[in-house]
Amino acid sequence: MRIGIIGLGGVGGFYGGKLARRYGPGGEHDILFFCRGAHRDAVRTGGLRVISREGQFVAHPLAATDDPDELGSLDVVLFCVKGYDLAGVAERVRPAIRPDSMLVPLGNGVNNDQVISQVLDTGDCLGGCVYISSHIEGPGVVEQTGGSCKLLFGSRTGAMEPYRGLEALSRQADIDATLTPTILEDVWMKFAFIDPVSGVTSLFACSIGEVLHDPRKRAVLDGMMAEVALLAQAEDVGLPDDVVEQSLGKVRAFPADAKSSMQLDVEAGRRSELDTMLGYVVEEGRRLEVRTPVHAAVYDELKRRLS
């Protein structure tokens, strides 16, 4: 297969790095990185260095490029960009996508597959999500600092057979990948904790541990989780009855001093996934007549600060 890793940040660098380590130039599968600037140049010169809890390695893709034409025709496209870049990047790589190309978004939103499908009129768009904390440490270097590193993907139709090859080659690359017939529920289960945690830590500029141990902050977190559960129900997504408690369990598993990715972006004055997560809940809540007052209040305050 010819596999394109679109975006070489923390997510793309970690999973793309593992694929490129296993299937280097001349290997069974072609691995291509779509990235830019100093990061691209460093990878071209010395490969991609991945620092993880398992150790370090250097991976060499078949190519690292910011030219869509150099990607060729791709069998698999892993979209590893933030939600605010997803539509634009999908349009950019359109020349590399065939009707049977598997398109797998790995971002934080619950509607990433729909965003891609609205932009492109071709390709087999799947759902996907990952559990990882990772970032670019410097040009040509990606570091994984936490998370189970699990990768889930699948079709909303529940079909399995067409995608088993992707699962197998991912596992052969030492990626903890699971093809699931319930990807919509899986994506929403992640969203049920990552969206509220991102919102609360960004709002109060505090660590996850501070949120859990401060009654006022914890009340906001609980309220946001309950609203996501209500919205999922309105969307006909079959989440378990104890989704809020399960989500809290995932939050408690983080180091007490951890910060959310969105919080780091907000504090650094960078673009954030505020609209991808909180904004989506507010807008969908209005469309489906689901009340989301806690989300609305947090979203409005963060939007005001960032304007």
Description:
With 307 residues, the chain is α/β, with parallel strands linked by helices. The chain folds into 2 domains: 2-180, Rossmann fold (3-Layer(aba) Sandwich), CATH 3.40.50.720; 186-306, N-(1-d-carboxylethyl)-l-norvaline Dehydrogenase, domain 2 (Orthogonal Bundle), CATH 1.10.1040.10. The protein is 47% helix and 22% strand. It contains 12 helices and 11 strands. The chain has a 6-stranded parallel β-sheet with strand order 5-2-1-6-7-8, sandwiched between helices. Strands 3, 4, 9, 10 and 11 form a 5-stranded mixed β-sheet that branches. The protein is globular. It starts with a strand and ends with a helix.
Number of helices: 12
CATH superfamily of the largest domain: NAD(P)-binding Rossmann-like Domain
Mean pLDDT rating: 96
Main β sheet profile: 6 strands, parallel
**Beta-strand level of the residues, as a percent range?**
15-25%
Identify the CATH class of the largest domain: Alpha Beta
- Structural class comes to alpha/beta
